[in-house]
Design a protein that fits this description.
The chain has helices at 86-95, 112-119, 202-207, 221-227, 231-238, 257-281; strands at residues 6-7, 15-16, 21-24, 27-30, 41-44, 47-55, 62-72, 75-79, 97-102, 122-126, 147-149, 160-165, 172-177, 183-185, 190-191, 218-219, 244-246, 253-254. By secondary structure, the protein is of the alpha+beta class. The N and C termini lie far apart (48 Å).
């Protein structure tokens, strides 16, 4: 069960949670602890980004991930949630009221229950996504979203919509903001690790470049291999109008983003088409 939002005078700020686990179908799960992160940065008016830490399930790899925060009329929507430490939560609370969390990536979402329990935030996920541990899509879910969204859904942020990779398994989406020439907020699909940053451990610095990561304006290599999105999804992505990309992994791309990503997207289209042809011949 989830806890209701409650006022408090605790050091964490305005709210506290009365629950310490997330669960459904009788399965309990400890909420993940906060890992090191940076400060909230305002990239554009009422659009903020904070970089934190992610540990890859089943592998000794630690690397960076980003949370985007959108503010509208003192209401905050968190995209690609990252649990912050207490000082980070105080900074977040100073921006407004934490009302919504939107999950874009099929392999993310581990910190969504924290914001549900602590702040009573409404959790949005893409239709077909489930909250399971690791990469086992058939495992029993440990949590359930409040809203399941698709391309036609009305999101809690005005002037926004989802572009959904309909063929990806598990489903994946990017959030499109219809402002400032077009802004895409991505999960695992569009990445931009120009270099290993301070959140990479030694193993990640050694292994991830060889795995196809740590490249600018990149399609997430493991996501592309596992989720296997079709060519038409990448074609639809390239048809979007966008100047900026705020990825879950890597540095923000401010300006000329569609052209900067075009080579990687066109390569992904070609790769998906070749994969389809091989399947037809087999």
């Amino acid at each position: 069960m989830v806890a209701a939002k409650q006022r408090t005078d605790s050091p964490s700020g305005r709210y506290r949670s009365t629950a310490v686990t997330a669960g459904m179908h009788g399965q309990a799960r400890e909420l993940p602890v906060a890992l090191p992160h940076g400060e909230l940065r305002e990239l554009l008016p009422d659009i903020f980004l904070v970089t934190g830490t992610m540990k890859m399930a089943g592998r000794p790899l630690t690397f960076s991930r980003n949370m985007t925060v959108l503010r509208e009329n003192n209401s905050l929507t968190l995209i690609n949630s990252v649990r912050l430490e207490e000082h980070g939560l105080r900074s977040l609370e100073q921006l407004g009221t934490i009302d919504n969390v939107i999950r874009l990536a099929g392999f993310h979402g581990t910190d969504d229950p924290f914001y549900k329990h602590r702040y009573g935030a409404r959790i949005w996920a893409v239709k077909g996504q489930s909250y399971v541990s690791g990469f086992d899509a058939d495992a029993t879910p440990f949590f359930q979203a409040d809203e399941l969204a698709g391309a036609a859904s009305q999101l809690p942020v005005s002037g926004s919509k989802l572009f959904v990779f309909r063929s990806a398994k598990p489903p994946e989406a990017v959030m499109v903001l219809l402002r400032d020439g077009g802004i895409l907020i991505s999960g695992d699909s569009l990445q931009n690790w120009c270099a290993a940053d301070r959140y990479f451990n030694l193993m990640a610095r050694l292994m991830m470049p060889a795995m196809g990561f740590v490249r600018s304006h990149n399609i997430g290599p493991i996501w592309n291999k596992v989720a296997r999105p079709a060519a038409e999804d990448f074609e639809g992505l390239l048809a979007l109008r966008f100047e900026h990309v705020l990825p879950a992994h890597g540095d923000e791309v401010m300006g000329n983003a569609r052209e900067l990503y075009r080579p990687a997207i066109e390569k992904a289209i070609a790769g998906a088409l070749c994969g389809s042809e091989r399947q037809l011949k087999s």
